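Researcher: Let's continue the batch. This sequence belongs to SusC/RagA family TonB-linked outer membrane protein, and it's 917 residues. Same format as the previous ones, please.
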Amino acid sequence: MNKKTSRLTTGGYFFLICGALSAQTTQKKDTLQENKIEDIVIVGYKAQKRSSLTAAVSIISDKKLKDANTSNVSSLLQGKAAGAQVMQGGGGPGSTATVKIRGTSTINGPSQALWVVDGVMMTGTPNLDPNQIESINILKDATSTALYGSRGANGIVQVFTKSGNSGKGTLSISMNSSFNTFNNGRFKLMDGTQLYDYFTSLKNAPALPEQLRNDSYNWLKNGTQTGAVQNYTIDFRGGSPTSKTYISGNYYNESGTVKSYDFNRLSFRINHEQKVQPWLTIKPKVSLSYTTGKDRQGSLYQMYLNMPWDNPRYSNGDLVNPNAPNITWYGRDYTNYLYDLQWNYGKSNQLDLLGNFDAEIKLTDYLKFVTTNNVTYKNYDDMYYTDPRSIAGESNKGGLAESYIKDISKFFNQMLRFDKDFGVHNVNALAAYEYTDRFYKLSKAGVYGIVPGTEIFDTGATTGAKPSGTKLDRAYNAFLFNTEYVYDKKYFVQGSLRSESSSSFGASQRNGLFYSYSLGWNIQKENFFQVKQIDEWKLRASRGLVGNTPSPNYGWQDLYALTQVYDGQIGATWNQLGNRNLTWESIYQNNIGTDIKAFNNRLTLNVDYFNNKTKDLLMLVTLPSLTGVDRQYLNVGDVRNKGWEFNLSYSIIRSQNVNWDIGFNISTYNNRVLSTRNNSTQLLSNNQVAISGYDVTSFYMRKWMGVNPDNGAGQWEVINADGSRSLTSNYNQATLQIVGAATPDYYGSFSTNLTIRNFYLNANIYFSQGGQIYNSYRELFDSDGAYPYYNQMVLKDSWNRWEKPGDIATHPIGIFNNNTLTNKPSSRYLEDASYVKFRSLRLGYNFPKSLTEKIKMTSASIYIMGENLFTITKFSGIDPEVGPSDADKVNGNPYSGNAGAIYPIPRRFSLGINFSF
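Model: Same format as before. Here are the structure tokens for SusC/RagA family TonB-linked outer membrane protein:
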């Protein structure tokens, strides 16, 4: 931990201790009365009293989700719950974050959390307007997730949208305008002078014209901008004694910090609840989102690598074609993305439609039938136009490419719920049948030789690109049962079973039986417990088995590819060896926790310890090519994942005019591969590997040993046959080995909420300590002369390059067209991933009722907010907060730790107004 992180954490503890002492010594009576109505929490498929909850659950109210202005709900969750690691996939408009709950418990299977919206399991992150959300629950252990079966094996993000009320109708309007500034972190590129000095210092470098030392075109500055966001929401909540209605509409528009990309979304939702008869209530819901994107944005990659000596425009303003005759252009790839963007562009459209028809039938006072029925439809299409006049269109006389996705999911759940008191005894139970399926189809096509300006295939096209696509079907079928027994509100016992069938496996392995059981004890209700300062103290423990399915839908089948042509005929080639015995990953989850409320409910403390073991890991294994097919999915290996989670909140001040709360959560976990197939090395993506005894996210590469002070050559480690270690300056002779891991030691957040009369201040700081990050950009931009005609990064103050014998340097000698491979993957580019990020600061004012009543309003408020304000880190790249890119998430890649071509998360400043009638 760096000093600044340490001071921050120490300061948080200092505030906590001071507040606790204040609570014991203050003479002022608490003005807030204890809530006598027991809270009801919906966990999974059932509603429970909070006092009897035995599951590991974090509850996030809508008030805690207002410290960010974003189009995607996943980005709102960072720092809100212990055990939930939220990794941003980038800062581009419409980007989503990855939510991982309790670390990585698998290797090939999906490791992201399951999203459940209003009881319906979703595919991926829902395209949902955050303003429609009432609350979110993070479900973390087997007790809370087992009823969801294999899809909930990696934890669940349970979302509840807003509902109407039976009282007077309320119309609310929210308006927000934001400005995004491009935030490149500590990654700085050289200007013309710096690059000239670097280039001429390279050994064997050719001469350059001296005037280049003053020429400097800033590609990054000229390709980026201050982006703008407009976010408007109007919603209505109202109803009658027999009905409740919620209607919401939202318009979100964002222009990126990289020029010429616009993201627009229109969202609409209606949630209605109608009591048709005293025994029958119907609950239809409809959600509609229409998203469009217009893409003429420049290449961020080219902004980084293009030389400052190359100006994209002539003196008269016309754009330069670097490939034209008699053009002087220094960049290696002869690229000027602005030239093509005179004509080339892309468009995308996405329609998300969710429809529910739910109902509740009251059979008796203690028995209900609940039916949930949903269809989710997603239609996505995009096109990209390449003009015949552009460089990209020269070879094929222009082109038009389109892709189309149809994604349809159905979900049906028919459930009986029983809840009855027998004196001091309470029994509640449920039994249900559930079915869900998914149909997905992707089609791609294109034409060449088009008429300039067309967006239609058959207007002048002379040839066509080879069409491509994919299609999949997947279905689940399950019976589930849960029961809970409560004695005198002191002792709790709960158990659940789920029998699930999945089409991802062969007929003999299709069925899986998953279970959980838990115990709870409210200690403060015992007669012997006489500690007045403690209001509630509960102990709980759970154990369960959940399953996980493979990322492919047909891992158990022989697959053939119809892509090869022989003698003019299409032939089938063996693409995958089937495995009829392929079966579920089995994740055994154990959790022990305690929940404490003390000092008149000022202090809340939740502590959990979990220890999970995953058996029969699903892996794609490479086979010898002599078999005729080179891959097969097998169940191989085990992984253990364990850790601690702490969540603490404290009300330092409670009074009529001043309220001050602080919150702190921290999570720590580690995972280990216990075994692999024949204890062999399983190579993964991003230079990562699975080896028995090491972290799942371990980096596997050559170990950098610094610079030889005698000759300036780079050095790597060699592990000899006898176990001894030596140095080599030959990259290919160095030993591949484990050199670190991406898993952080711990992560968490600190938050504070201060209210003084009508003013309020909210702040959130997020931190992550430990773990490593591979800065792959340095392979190009810190290349020791391997890429002399790419721009290079400015070295950090603590770095220096070898120049003469005896120099103790961090960087080897620079050589023109360097072929010593010092810029190839090694631990040289592994950096400390620790950081502290000032995530958000919000200052607002609630107008007094005396004023709002005069203008016929129920309430009104105004606020200003800053997000991603600054980051404290040693990382030399753009941002150490790295998650899978959008492309990786589409391909099912669960790993992080590679800082490549990520769109920087912008710094955002917002002004917002809320009012209601």
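Researcher: Any comment?
Model: DSSP finds nine helices and 45 strands in the chain.
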